[in-house]
Amino acid sequence: MTGGAGFIGSEFVRSLLGADASARITVLDKLTYSGVEANLASVADHPGYTFVHGDICDADTVDALMPGHDVVVHFAAESHVDRSIEGAGPFVLTNVVGTQVLLDAARKHGVGRFVHVSTDEVYGSITEGSWTEEWPLAPNSPYSASKASSDLLALAYHRTHGMDVVVTRCSNNYGHHQFPEKVIPLFTTNLIDGASVPLYGDGGNIRDWLHVSDHCRGIELVMRGGRAGEVYNIGGGTEVTNKELTGLLLEATGTGWERVEHVADRKGHDLRYSLDISKIRTELGYEPQVAFADGLAATVAWYRDNRAWWEPLKAGLQPKAAQA
Ligand code: NAD
Ligand code: DAU
Question: How many whole angstroms from 4 Cα to the centroid of ligand 1?
Fold first, then answer.
């Protein structure tokens, strides 16, 4: 598993090891600004858990680690759109080159299955209707362009080399342990701290919010039962505008609209993401389980109760992202 110290990867590791005493997972993570080894503290004593501090772009490290593993689940990435607008270099290196390094090593050592964790942002932006897996890719940000590149590279290794590759494309995740630069934890922690929140543009952009546990459940279904060479959309959360989301967070924190600062829009800001999840539903019986109202309330409560987790991370952010 790559990127297992991050937001989604750590949930995946905790849930897999938590459910199976005989499972064995090696986590490879560079511990970049968004990687937190303590996210895996609850499984550190599991007999099947190994943590390796390393870079997926380092071919020697990856080559040495790969033998003995039957599945690669690839989460590691530079994941924040705003950072990719400031500078695309790390996105191309980790997301594109890192994926190629992993694919080559997995192929060389005959790994049984390669699960590539991609994103709905590879489809671009859609004003009406929802994307099926056949939709052409039209990414708009350097982040989504780098994810589209790695997504296509993974599929190309299936077509060219016959590797058993499956790709998941998921909508916006939320939940505990999300790095406080993403909109929900950023706004929640700012509001808890009495600071303002920076709402981009007119706040009319729409995202489909899915609880991180539902995303991980979908990835596990695809890992175990997805067909080789196929793409599976994972979504089915709740579509809301950023303004509606802000209203919900103000309510959950007992604060008002005077705390909202209307700031310049994100460059190239995608208007709306929306996924058709018929394929994973029909083939693998996937159904999201966490209602948005419940998941959001639990998430706000988690950030309220876990200041010690997020405060040091936020202190390390650039002022623009932290805004507090
Ligand atoms: P995150 O930023 O919280 O975690 C990324 C992890 O990858 C960190 O632990 C980091 O240390 C590690 N990492 C980064 N570069 C690395 C490198 N070169 N070598 C080894 N490890 C490295 O990200 P996240 O939100 O958990 O996203 C995980 C994956 O899911 C990404 O591939 C992302 O594109 C995808 N995804 C995210 C969302 C979302 O809403 N967050 C939705 C769909 C898909
Ligand atoms: O759709 C999946 C993607 O979701 C993942 O692939 C990405 O890794 C993940 O970061 C997320 O991308 P977004 O750009 O949608 O998430 P973010 O939390 O950065 O922003 C969500 C929306 O909120 C977006 O329309 C921009 C807006 N926003 C964001 C920030 C950080 C604001 O209005 N103000 C902010 O300060």
Answer: 8
Short-list 157, 166, 129, 171, CA closest to 288: 171
292, 212 contact by CB (below 8 A): no
Q: What is the signed CA dihedral for 142, 147, 151, 156, rounded to 10 degrees? A: 40
Residue 3 alpha carbon, nearest atom of ligand 1: 7
Is residue 98 in contact with ligand 1, taking CB distance under 6 Å? yes
Give the chain's radius of gyration (CA, Å).
19
Query: What's the pLDDT tens digit per position in 181-212?
Result: 999 999 999 999 999 999 999 999 999 999 99
Is the C-beta atom of 321 inside 6 A of ligand 1?
A: no
- Domain 7-314: CATH superfamily is NAD(P)-binding Rossmann-like Domain (3.40.50.720)
Structure tokens at 84: 């990719």
**pLDDT tens-digit series, residues 158-187:** 999 999 999 999 999 999 999 999 999 999
Angle at 254 between CA 178 and CA 313, to 5 degrees: 25
Q: Which pTM value belongs to this model?
A: 0.98
The residue among 89, 143, 180 whose CA lies nearest residue 267 is 143
Average pLDDT of the chain is 96
Q: How far apart are CA 277 and CA 275, in angstroms?
A: 6
Ligand 1 and 30: CB distance under 6 A: yes
pLDDT at residue number 321: 43
